[in-house]
Amino acid sequence: MLSSVIVFPGSNCDRDMAVALEKFGFKNSMVWHNDTELPKTDLIVLPGGFSYGDYLRCGCIGSKSKIIEKVIEFANKGGLVLGICNGFQILVEAGLLPGTLLRNKYLRFICKDVYLKIKNNSNTFYSKFKKDIIKLHIAHNEGNYFVKNDELKKLQDKNQIAFEYCDINGEVSESSNPNGSINNIAGVFNDNQNVLGMMPHPERMIDKYLSGNDGSLFFNNIKHKLSI
Amino acid sequence: MKISIVVTLKKEVLDPQGKVIQQTLQNMGEKAVFNVRQGKYFELDLNENNYEKAKIMAEEICKKLLANLVIEDYKIMDNS
């Protein structure tokens, strides 16, 4: 299984992601944003961080990088693409995912563990999940997901909502919404469900002694699907 | 030629920074201000002396990069 992590100037979760992928059996390559060719790969990951210092809009300048044309080509052919945090912001700016990420509603950088309700386990990223509520870490200033109402309806109808912020019991409510995201949305899929953008960081939850193990479920599941 | 562009959040999008500025103005005694929207201002220097042509170029640039049309509107200012 081959993975590629795209590195932008200002990425800061790229190495954590590489460590996580390698722990779960991927042979990973780091790919510089200015490269024009992708290595052979089964999964592309756009990591968290602050690409280009969040200039203009978060993820905007990164989304115009040379390698992104190849990422779009790869995604359009059905390849698996995962964007975490700033990677999610880049995917929406690149037009691979609908909507956009606004500044957090209460104007604070949020850094904490959250519970997430998995909304759709009929795709590669979640198919073998035994749990439907997981705990992951978030750390962002612009995670307030926004789409227009007609677009939101389309996401719901096509099962494109990946997960929603909830409390420990799975209750999705205003009080479990950390950043003001519409309908508590924490992650979305594209139409074909091969591109996933999410604000939470699974790569930070891969060791039960250090943080938690729900990120391991996530990576194990992708590995399982790709190795069939 | 210089072209000026203002990018603002669309009306239906919440602007928490604008809201905080409005509340601060209220607290400072500016009671007449009941709404503030914050935006971005750009100045482009273009190798083009025809305003109409420059405006078309600027329009394309706004759509391609300067504004995220999901949440933002852009306005190209009149040449004056």
Task: Write up what this structure looks like.
Chain A is an alpha/beta fold. Chain A has a single domain, classed as Class I glutamine amidotransferase (GATase) domain (Rossmann fold). Chain A has helices at residues 14-23, 66-76, 86-93, 149-157, 214-227, and strands spanning 2-7, 27-32, 43-46, 80-84, 100-102, 110-118, 133-140, 144-146, 161-166, 185-189, 195-198. By secondary structure, chain B is of the alpha+beta class. In chain B, strands 2-1-3 form a 3-stranded antiparallel sheet, covered by helices on one side. The longest helix of chain B has 16 residues, at 51-66. Chain B is elongated and about 45 Å long.
Domains of chain B, number: 1
| Number of domains as seen in the coordinates of chain A | 1
- What is the number of E strands of chain B? 3
Multimeric state:
heterodimer
Could you say what the CATH topology of chain B is called?
Mth169, Chain: A
Helix content of chain B: 25-40%
Question: What is the rounded distance between the termini of chain B?
Answer: 11 Å
> Strand percentage of chain A, roughly?
25-35%
Task: Write out the CATH superfamily name of chain A.
Answer: Class I glutamine amidotransferase (GATase) domain
Low-confidence stretches of chain A: none
Biggest chain pair interface: A-B, 18 and 11 residues
What level of helicity do the residues of chain A show? Answer: 10-25%
- Give the strand line-up of the largest sheet of chain B: 2-1-3
CATH top level of chain B is: Alpha Beta
Integer average pLDDT of chain A: 94
Shape of chain A: globular
The main pleated sheet of chain A reads as: 9 strands, mixed
